Structures are given as structure tokens and as C-alpha cells.
Amino acid sequence: MQADLLQAALYAVVLVALAVPLGLYMARVYTGDVTFLAPVEKTLLGAAGGGGEQSWCTYAVSLLLFNAAGFALLLAILMFQNVLPLNPQGFDGLSWHLAFNTAVSFVTNTNWQSYGGETTMSNLSQMVGLTTQNFLSAATGMALAAAVARGFAGRQVRTVGNFWTDMTRSVLYILLPLSLVLAVVFAALGMPQTLAGSVDATTLEGAKQTIAIGPVASQLAIKQLGTNGGGFFNVNSAHPFENPLAITNYLSMLAILVIPVAFCFTYGRMIGDRRQGLALFAAMGVLLVAGFAALYAAEHAGNPLHAAFVEPVTGNMEGKEQRFGLIGSVLWAATTTAASNGSVNAMHDSLTPLAGMVAMLNMQLGEIVYGGVGVGLTGMLLFVIITVFLAGLMVGRTPEYLGKKIEAKEVKLAALTLLIMPIGVLVLGGLAIAVGTAQSSVQDAGPHGLSELIYAYTSATGNNGSAFAGFNANTPWHNTFLGLAMLLGRFGYMLPILAIAGSLGTKMPAPPTAGTFPTHGTVFVVLLVATILIVGALTFLPALALGPIAEQVSMLAGTTF
What we know:
Elements: H1 2-30, H2 38-48, H3 56-79, H4 96-107, H5 117-120, H6 123-153, H7 163-188, E1 198-202, E2 208-212, H8 216-225, H9 246-271, H10 274-301, H11 325-339, H12 353-364, H13 375-395, E3 400-401, E4 404-405, H14 408-416, H15 420-435, H16 437-441, H17 447-461, H18 476-505, H19 522-556
Antiparallel strand pairs: 1-2, 3-4
Helix pairs in contact: 1-9, 1-11, 2-7, 3-4, 3-6, 3-18, 4-18, 6-7, 6-8, 6-9, 6-18, 7-8, 8-9, 9-10, 9-11, 10-11, 10-12, 10-19, 11-12, 12-17, 12-19, 13-14, 13-19, 14-18, 15-17, 15-18, 17-18, 17-19
């Protein structure tokens, strides 16, 4: 255990050491101080036809139209890949419902996969379709964060920046350089990078085997850096071509969280008060460490039902790759479910019940425990609005944040977002049960079957993309309704926080007084974390009690289903 915890501590130290300078650099990118690719940027913005300042409403319209166009293009590529080039395996086009689900999934940065990549997607679909959207969906979230930071810091202004400029800078100065470097490193460490569809091999027994390959390293780099998670292969980062070594496992985990963590420092620099960014970093860090600790404790304890017929081992190794071990798998699960990254290096369906519950709860809290690139920051700011409102009620003062009055409009918009996860998980999941599609898609009986369903709709609404592998989602019903859950979870948060940013930007901050509640100290961090946990617990505890908690009690009692 000591060695495991040392690995986790080393990961945290290296992550922060990388995130701080990256965050400060990103702030310079969004304020226009990074210009070494100015001619390319100018050309791209000229082609986009945008460059002037936009109100929050115009910014939102641009964002929605751009993502709608990306969805339509990706849908066409997937449905007609059989007649498009770069299809060496001769794959058919996807069905309408699978194409809809996949297009929504990659446009919303969810990367939920109801398909097996190596048996479904052509090289063109993987590269031009999926990898392109890995860049653009990530850049959309990053642009949103930059706009929100400008709005929160604005002084009687009615603009939040320009969507096309923010998108271009996100890709050109941040995502593309980092992805190029990481892709080269991944290829050097053994990930395939080729346009060939497969290679033939002869096994030790003399049998012939066809091994799927393709442009893997390039997709894997942006898959992780953009908190996307969509794998080239069906088993994702548990596949030796996607994650061949312990060092690739480590680098992937750093890539997953480095931009979301960096955004805390970007935010502090852009609003001119680094203490605010540090407070958000601390709150997110507390939740991540608590989730990791609970997940690790549950997996380290293992399943007592195995003790009677398995030689004693340290922890639950079911569904895990030996090359990563318990700590590599647990840290990955905690990192990805906190970061809105759907990649897996171990099967979450094989987690112990309480560990599976922690993974679910990480997502049910919303994209806030560092979360997806950009949207993790904005999701946490929604909880900040709610927290300062509650703090204002406690002391009998009008709530303020960054010196600006938080009024009914902002509170209502923030409170509205609290309904998104319950609708996506409980309403749409319950509807699947009511019509019978849930029962026919779960693999396991008893409470674990319910956990499979809850996890699927939690992952979709939380724009995460990981899954309990026993759940069969590739049906017309689930492909459609999981797609709707992804759209709700993506744009249901984006539009309210943009509106709040636009509203706050028009206000003039007042200087702090003796009665001002500071939003950068330990007391506020504790109150923020408590608010998040209370909201999550009150919303999902009944469903979790029927699923993973009931399964844990049954497991300890020796009951199987």
C-alpha cells in the first residue's frame, strides 16, 4: 500500500508542476499575448469570417451553430463511410441510431461508444470524423471557459470575447502543439500510427490471426488531452496498442487532467485574482483526493466472496490489466470519472460495488472535479454562485462574487442547472425501465444490473463516456435517449453559465467591506465542497441505495444473484 500511495502522490506533484505554467500560458493565449502563429491565426479567422467582440447571446449562437454543423458532417461521414475512401476493411455505414449516438457523443465531448472501433469504424471515420471532433469539442469547452472568465471579470461591458477567435486559439496554440508532441511520444513507445487496416500474424500454435491497427497514436493524444476518451479499439486504453506500457499509462493520466487543472490558474490570471483560482483548485482537489481514497480503499479490500477459492492477493484484480496493477487502474478510474474522460484501462463493471458507486458519484456531481477541459471550470463556477447565495442567506446579506451582486437572475439560472443530472439519469433511466428496454440491456441480475443502467445514463448526462461494460447500449432506444442525455448534459450547462457571465459583465464591482464574505479562503472552500456533496447526496442517494449500496450489503452477507 505504501508504494501505491507514493505513486499517487508523485502523480499529483508532477500534475500540478505541469499545470501551473500551462495555466499561465493559456491565460496569455486568451488575452491575445501569444502571437507566434499570428499569420496562420489571421488566415483561419478570415476564413471563419469572425473577429469582433460578441455579446454572450451572439457567442452562444455561434457556439451552437458551429457544433450543429460539426454534428451534421460527422453524421454523414459515419452513415456513408462505406462509399468514402480510407476504408481498407470495407466496413458498412452505421445505422441511423448508432450514427446519431456517435455523432452526438463526439460533438459533446462525451465519446460514449456503443460500437467496437476496430470492427466498425473506417480510418476516414476515425481520423476525419472522430479525431477532428476530439479537437473541436475540446476547443469548444475551452472557449466557453475563456468567455466566462471575461464575463466574471468584466466591468460594465456587454461582450465576452469572440467564439471564433477563442476556438482558433485553443486549437492552434494549445491543443495542436501538445497533441503533436504527445502523439510522437506515444508512437515511439509502441502505439501504431499507420493507414493500414490490419496485419496478419502467425501464433505460437501456428494459427493465423488478423490484428487490427490504424492511426492510433494521433487519436490517443487528443483523446486524452481533450478529456475525450473515445478509444480506437473496443476495450479502449486496456488494449495494448492504446496503452502498451506503465509509462504510457502514467503519461495518459497526466494528459487527461493537465488542461482541466491548468484552467484554475488560467481563471485566476484572467480575472486578476489568483486566490480565486486557487480556491477552485483546492475544492476540486479535495473532491478528487476523497474520491480516489474511497475508490482505492474499496478495491484494496477486495471481494470477500473470492477468498474461499482464490489464493489471497492484495485487492480486487478482476477486470484489470496486470501491467498496470491495482494502483494504476484505480488512479485511472478516479482520474477519468472526475475529469469527464471516458477512457478505461480496466473494466468498471468489475469494480467492487462501493468503488463503482464512487465512479458514478464523481460524474453525478457534475463536471466539476476538474471536469472536462474548460467545462469543468464553468461547472464549478455554477456551484460557486449557489454557494455564495447560501452564504448570503446565512449572514443576511446580498450575496456577492468578485465584488458583484448575485441577484435573482443569476441564482435562478444556476439553480436550473441542478435539474440537468437528475433529468438525464433518473428520468431518462426510469423511462428505460418503464418501457422494458433497460431490463433487456443489462447483463447482470439484482442490484448490479440497476447499477449498469444508472452508470450508463450518468455517464451520458455527465458527458463522461465510460461504461459498465455489461450494459448493451447499441439499441435504437438507448442510442437515441443516451444521445439526448448527452445533449442535455452539454448545452444545458453551457448556456446558463454564459448567460450568467454576460449578466455579471455588465455590473461594476464594489470594493470589499467588513461584511464581505471572502470567496478565496478555507471557509469558503469547505462550504463549496459541502454544498456540492449535499446536492449530490440528496439527489442520487435513493438510486445508489438500490444499486451499489444494496450490492455491497449483499456481497458482505455472502449473497449472489
